[in-house]
Every structure is written in structure tokens, then in C-alpha cells.
Amino acid sequence: MTKALLLAGGLGTRLRPLTETIPKCLVPIAGRPLLDYWVERLAAAGIAEARINTHAHAERVRDYIGSVNASGRLRLVEAHEPELLGSAGTVAANAELADGAESVVIVYADNLSDIDLRPLVDYHRRHEDPLTMVLFRAPDPRACGIVELDAQHRIVSFVEKPEQPKSELANAGLYVLDAAAYRAIAAMGAFDLGFDVLPRFVGRMRGWVWGGYFRDVGTHEALERARHDAAVVFPAATRTGRSVGAGAGRPAVFLDRDGTLIEHVPYLSDPALVRLLPGAAEALVRLRRAGFACVLVTNQSAIGRGMLTVERLEEIHAELDRQLAAHGAALEAVYYCPVAPGGDDRTVVECPDRKPGPGMLLRAAAERRLDLAASWMVGDLVSDVMAGLNAGCRSILVHSGQTTAAAAPPLPGRTLVAADLAAAAEVILSGQ
Question: Does residue 350 register a pLDDT over 60?
Fold first, then answer.
């Protein structure tokens, strides 16, 4: 029997502020949590039991664990760490995981890969060394743990982030260990696998080179690249948007307010100035009839600037609801972020909820069981479309507000353009 240990308790500091509200292991990629891809890999390899360490936002991971266990595909057991123990410390705290196992797979769950674990485990069983390390060819070897192999693929040197790399073969943060080796590591009382443990196995561990997809999803740039790649690397998953352990929810159209649904008025504070844009209400009617949840997500920095009260904002939205109802249209929900920005760059996530942060969309999806991979974000600013992409949706930029066709900025991948919400609805309903 092979068991698995998922290392998923990291803080994800380089992904802040996104990771201030969501753990790094659940950051969405193509509408699915990053961790979901590893659960799928483990289940496909016939690994029926895994343990996962938690720390930051443990309650969110706990909910995910429950959904996986309910699916019956894999049994996940939480190992909560009030204080982070380090990768080797997590092994020590879970020494009994090796009981009843022939081998243990250890996975750094903040990476994304399409690796097939079954031939990896088979390879480990065929050689006599106690540990197998998965390797990939690093574009920047100085940023990784680099190995040298002999003719039998035995690792004869291992250096973390060398100044003068001796090869381009890098540690992928994925290992298979004999149960005895796992227990031996647990008994070391070490902190970090890379620095404290693996050098002790030089000369008695093998390297297994994976030539498929591998990416460390540790920075905003890497996350954006992974989201772009996922449509090609995991096409079936991105088409369905289904998560292991969770049924697919409803599709949604997330809508910006000013310049998309109503006329743009700078720092709107008077309900009397609310005016629906032509065709906007009719577009909502068509989308709702097609089964889309229509959810408003709006930045309201006027509150943070002291120019608008929450009570006045509610009056504005009540007037919006009244005008929509006159056309037989309605919004399912309204989410707003009152935070004022610290800068002018609309592509920078300063607050998880403030667009381009995906927080409002993620919260709506969780509360209303929405399928992000099957959903769309429609807005008139680059911050709107980026919020959609950051949440794993497709996005459409409309030219009915502040971004006209003549002044449109360069747009990130998977972004379409339309004249207004009515035209955007045509794109969505046509299935493009």
C-alpha cells in the first residue's frame, strides 16, 4: 500500500494579498483549487489515503477535506499545525502515517503538475534505494535545488540554490520513500527536507525525471502563467470546472456596476442619478433565463474615502433594483468592497476583495455554489476583467463605460471585448 503526505500549510506570502483570505493550496486555477489537481493525481494512481497539514485559513482547507471525503475518491486526514513545523517537522509529527504502508509519497502541494504518479511509484519499487526524487528541467537552476545523476540515475550531489549549478535537473518537491526511510526522517527531528534531510540521502536516492508540465505557483506572475497553461494542460478539467469531492455548481455572470449596468457617474452618491444603460436589463433577463446567476460585484472606494455611507449605497442599489424590476429583470446578489486604493495601477491586487482581487467572486461562489470555470466576469475596466481571470472565470471588457474601444489597454489572455452588456450577453449565450 502507498500513502501520501500533502504539504499544504504554507503562508503563501508572495501571493499576498490574495492569500490573506484564502490558503495558497486553494488558490483557484481554471475554476478549481490548486489542491484539487493533486487529489486527482493521487486518486488516479490508486492512492486511497493521504494526510494534509494545515495552518493558514485551516477552516477553509477543512471544508475542502470534507468535500473530498464525501466523494469517496480519497480519504484525506487533517494534521493541523498551530505553528508551522517545517517540511521535515511535519513528517516527524505524522510518523505513524507509514504504519501499514510499503511506501509514502510526499507532495509539496503548492506546485501544479500533470504528473502520472503510478509509473513513479512503480519505478521506486524496482530499485533498491530508499528514496526517489522527482526532477524537472529548471529554466533557472540557481533558484532551485539542483542534482547530479550517475549512469544508474542515482543522485550523487544535491545543492540548494547553487551559485554555479552543475546541471539543470531540479528538485520538484515530490518524493517516494520506503516506509522505513520515512520513519528514519521522522526520527531525525529536523526542520526542512531540502536543507536538513535530503543531503543525508546523497548516494542512496534515485532521480526520476518528469518531462511533462511542472510549475511552482509561488508568485502572482507564476499563478497567472499557470492559469493560462491550465486550459491546454488540463483541457477536460477546465471545460467542466468540476472539483474532486464537489459537484459542479451553477454558472454565473459577475457584473461590474458603473459603466457596465448603469451609466458611469464618478463616485455616485445620489440615487436620482442611477440610469440603466440601454439593453442592460434585457441582457439580464436573457442571462437568467439561460440559467446564469447574475451577481453584481462593485468597488465602492467612495465609502473608504468618506464620500458615501453604507446606508446611502443601499438606497442606490434599491433604486437600481426598482429600475431593473420595471423591465422584469433582477440581480441575484450584490457584493461591494468599500476599500479605497493606495495607488492608481488597476492591475495590482491591493486588497483581496477590491478588484482586480477575486475576493468578491470567490465569496459569492462559496455562498451560492457557483461554478467559476463556467462563469463570466463583465466590466468596463481592466481591473474588472482581471478579477474574473484571478477567480478562474472568463472575462469580457465592455466599451460602454470608462474604457472605450479607442483607448482599450493591452488585455490579459482569455479576455474578450464587446460594445456593451447586451453584446456581451450575446457572446456568453452563443457559447464562445
Answer: yes
For 271-294, give one letter per residue: b (16+ CB within 10 A) or e. Answer: beebebbebbbbbbbbbbeeebbb
Q: Tell whether 206 and 355 lie within a shared domain.
A: no
Q: How far is CA 167 from CA 101, 111, 136, 137, 237, in A?
A: 34, 21, 11, 9, 34
For residues 235 and 213, is the Cβ–Cβ distance under 8 A?
Answer: no
% the chain with pLDDT above 90:
34
Span 411-424, pLDDT tens digits? 655 678 999 999 99
What is the extent of the structural domain holding 133? 2-239
What is residue 239's predicted lDDT score, i.e. its pLDDT?
Answer: 38
> Whole-structure pTM over 0.70, yes or no?
no
- Model confidence at 244: pLDDT above 50: no
Give the chain's domain count.
2
Query: Do 173 and 302 belong to one domain?
Result: no
Q: Is the pLDDT of residue 431 over 80?
A: no
Co-location of 212 and 274 in the same domain: no
Q: Does 156 lie in the same domain as 293?
A: no
291 and 173 assigned to the same domain: no
Q: Has residue 244 been placed in a domain? A: no
What amino acid positions are annotated as catalytic residues?
Answer: 256, 258
Q: 89 to each of 125, 132, 175, how far by Cα in Å?
A: 26, 20, 16
pLDDT score for 409: 60
Q: Is 172 inside any structural domain?
A: yes
Where a domain ends, among 213, 239, 265?
239
Angle at 33 between CA 31 and CA 36, to 5 degrees: 115
8 Å CB contact between 5 and 87? no
Which residue in this structure is represented by grid cell 550531489? 157
Of the residues 220, 239, 258, the one at which a domain ends: 239
Q: Which residues contact 181 (CB under 8 A, 6 or more apart)?
A: 130, 131, 201
What was the pLDDT predicted at 279?
94
The reply to whether 154 and 91 lie within a common domain is yes
The CATH number of the domain holding residue 147 is: 3.90.550.10
Does 124 share its domain with 182?
A: yes
- Residue with grid cell 546541471, as numbered in its chain: 167
The band of 404, judged by pLDDT with boundaries at 50, 70 and 90, is low
User: What average pLDDT is seen over the chain?
Assistant: 85
